[in-house]
Design a protein that fits this description.
The chain is α+β, with helices and mostly antiparallel strands. The protein has one domain (10-154). The chain has helices at residues 15-23, 35-44, 50-59, 81-85, 92-99, 137-145; strands spanning 63-66, 75-78, 103-109, 112-117, 122-126, 129-134, 152-154. A 7-stranded antiparallel β-sheet has the order 1-2-3-4-5-6-7. A hairpin with a 2-residue loop joins β3 (103-109) and β4. The model has no long low-confidence stretch (mean pLDDT 93).
Amino acid sequence: MKVDEHILNIKLLDPYVVNILEKGGWSENRYYDIKYWIHELTIEGYVYFEYALDILENLGGLTFHVKDDCNHKGAQFDFNPFFAATGEFDRLAQFQLLAKEELFPIGSMCAAIVYVGRSKNIYWGSMNSLYWAGRTIEDYLNNLFDKEYESQEIVG
């Protein structure tokens, strides 16, 4: 990520989401060193791409446990792909067939692994099921807390 670029466009984020991110330690200029994660995940077989790296360099290491309120869903998620996806590479081939694109893990949501596709779409996978969760990282984060939103299962 270039120093003058911001991976998250806060204009696309609900103010509620921005507040949660900031309380959790995020800032627009945040940088997290992901070299170890990327090294270990590529040894396992995962193939990274620029958008995945950008997300992780900005959000990596952040963990959130948010309770629901009358206007928003609660959510439990983190941006640690090493913890989420190590030892889970065997699922990736099936998930990539369902998504019809290459995927890279960016973290977890409860017990599910969260992936980003080359198209910037965000997915989450649990057991043998894959769900579409947003068009971009901003869309995904907004959807996490939207009481009306339900992830869409991708059926092969």
